[in-house]
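Throughout this chapter, every protein is written as a compact record of paired, labelled lines. The reader may check this reading against the record printed directly beneath this paragraph:
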Amino acid sequence: MNEAETSSPEVAPEAPAEETREAPRSQGHLAIQPFVTYTLVTALKVISRLFYRGEYRWVGDPPPNPWQDIRLVAILNHTSLFEWLWAGSVPQSFIRRMARHGVVPVAEKTTQRPLVGQFFRLVARNVVAVTRKRDHTWKRVLDQLEGDTMVVMLPEGRMKRANGLDLHGNPMTIRGGIADVLKALPDGRFLLAYSGGLHHVQHPGQTFPRLFQTIRMNFEVVDIRDYRRELLERHGEDGFRHAVIADLERRRDTHCPPETTPSRG
């Protein structure tokens, strides 16, 4: 099976591109979408808890009500098509927010695939197909950042292979689009989700997952306004994007749980 990605554009100047418009959704589709998303993600949560043992911890002491006021989620250490298993770690209030206010940027090529594309289009209220450029498709994501929007991203933009590199043999760097989101969101909380990896469940190219494995993730919550202010004061406007990339890579390499080897189910 081909790789599916949520996407964040490269650190590159905006590139002119011929605009491709997504087909408009009917009012009936828009009305039913939150119910479908809530039902689907809840079902994924049940599947995760039935067939996998989750070990979830917080980095440091979590704030009171850590799942409230989240505006941005970054899942770090992207390794598998089965990232949806992390639905087993979240409360129902988080799933309700995904269904009503979630925005997920997904690689355009992924949304165009049969079945896989349809699945990804249903995991949040607004799933936005984006390219690898900072073009009109990325502007669609930024245009969604209002009200109670909650953005969920895998900011590496591609999956890590068993050798620790991406498909093309390159290091797993963070892409710069998440810095645009951090600048655009006025306040709220930034949830960092440090994955222990899912190669022991399903690695890229593997058709069927292994059941009854232990999956691990660590969480950390930071205040968006404080985080942005600190990096801007230290690095300025010109250095902000690179500072975000460097900081998230450091946090990922420090806080992700160790990779897990497959156990016999």
